[in-house]
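sorry for the late reply, my laptop died twice this morning and i had to redo everyting from scratch. anyway the thing you sent over, i finally got around to it. pasting the sequence first so we're on the same page, its 114 residues, then the predicted structure underneath. double check i copied it right bc i was rushing
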Amino acid sequence: MAALFLRIWCGVNELLVRAPTVLDRDTRLAFRREALRVVETSAGGGRDEGGRVIVDLEKTTRVDSAGLGALVLVRERAAEQRWTVCLRGASEELRFLLVLTRLEDRFEFEPPVT
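ok and here's the structure:
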């Protein structure tokens, strides 16, 4: 399971966490654990300038309600540290789900990097 998630340092105030191919009830706990560890150890520590956590969803083909909950929790923890969460390469299906649940304004979005 650990091979599904990769943490990459993008810069001083920018971090990248790759989501698994399917973010659902079976993978949400491992994803959430890794993403929160990144947020709490990297975004914390008394730094006041804030930053961005980029969740790379380019290779993610499906996100269910459990996966959505994991993304929201990561966003909430990041916000506590004054960091934003950007969903990179979010599918149209995920974006529609975020609109339906009125959560789209809580995330930044950017297109996939090719």
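The CA atoms of residues 37 and 86 lie 17 Å apart.
thats about all i looked at so far, will dig more tmrw
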